[in-house]
Amino acid sequence: MAKEQKKRGRKKAIETPAIMWDLFKQYAKETKDNPRIQYDYVGRNGDKVAKPLEVPLTMCGFELFVADNSTVDIIRIEQYFSNYEKRYTEFVGICRAIRAAIRKDQIEGGMVGQYNPSITQRLNSLHETTHTTVTEQPLFTDPEA
Predict the structure, then answer these.
(1) What per-residue confidence (pLDDT) applies to 3?
(2) If I label 122, which of 66, 107, 112, 141 is the partner at 20 to 30 A Cα–Cα?
(3) Quick one: pLDDT at residue 73?
């Protein structure tokens, strides 16, 4: 009769990729449901007008949300995303999907002018490359040549 082998190590704070995805969906909903407010002063009397601004999804925002809403501390959430010591292999796909969803929100928001495009470019390592070739031209041509 084969003996049952005990699992080594401690239980994961986020037990399954589905729970991680649920945490991400909660973070995204809470973030989008709670815009930042920008105040402008308009008109002849300088009336104060509140303008809601959509908040972009960010990796650090998600990490803080998870730390506040689960038993995972901020250091350990990074271990899920880096697959620390190959302990979180079953989370690789969901972590990739979360990063992609955050990147999509940032890029699309930057493209439509909802978020600052230059910050969006930097956060997502997007840049335009131009190549310049300089050829030397003589100032005067030698008539004897």
Answers:
(1) 45
(2) 66
(3) 82
